[in-house]
Specification:
Length: 278
Amino acid sequence: MRKGKQFRFLTEEHQLSVKRGCACIGLSRAAYYRPFKGLDDTEVIIAINEVTFKHPRWGFWLTFKTLRRKGFCWNHKRVYRVYCNLKLNQKRRAQKRIPQRVKQPLFVPGRPNQVWSADFISDALYAGKRFRTFNVLDDFNREILAIEIDTSLTGRRLIRIFLRLQGFRGLPEVLRVNKGPEFLYHELVDWAGSAGMRIQYIQPGKPNQNAYVERFNRAYRNEVLDLYLFDNLEEVREKTYWWMIDYNEERSHDSLEDMTPAEYMEKRAESPNFELST
């Protein structure tokens, strides 16, 4: 109970004087008689609106951490109060009940290019034409390396994507994927073996074994694919390109000590034992 409510309770219910009421709750009479001046939240509102306008699907904590990264030092309680007053609360996903099972912790790579994850997402343009995206993620720092977008993505197309990545990033020791037909394509399997990239297939019906890219897929769908209506593939590629930059350089991750993938890579690069697998 706040002191204001305590004071009203003592003076109204127990008929205490102002002097005795203030003495009972430890409130000075000068503070009691001083008119209350509410906080001016204009600066907080402007800062929150700037973040949420650019990232409308971000929740409170991601918005708050972004404000902190920009140098604002407001208490999270004050920011949350303003955030709620602006009606920006995101609908929470109900947790599904799942049967108990033995949890197997996902392997966390200790250096870049040790393990990459890859997966597909399917969506449609405004006119109904279907398209797919091929997403490649470095599990070490959750950095998104490539998002290829087209109506058809064959096994040969995947080889060209990995060749492009090899030119500026190298190839991983292990590529973690599901058993989709594109990843079982014999030319891709043979090329990966000759390039020194081992393809690791997850068990059917076990997407949690590829949890890093599955979590990324949810963020990409929520913040891009489900948020906008696209007329053509060029619009999808344009929006995705700028979103990738934000994801790698501005979006903090709890699992990366609240750093962005770029910052985490830079911090680990300062370690004397750091090395980039090739």
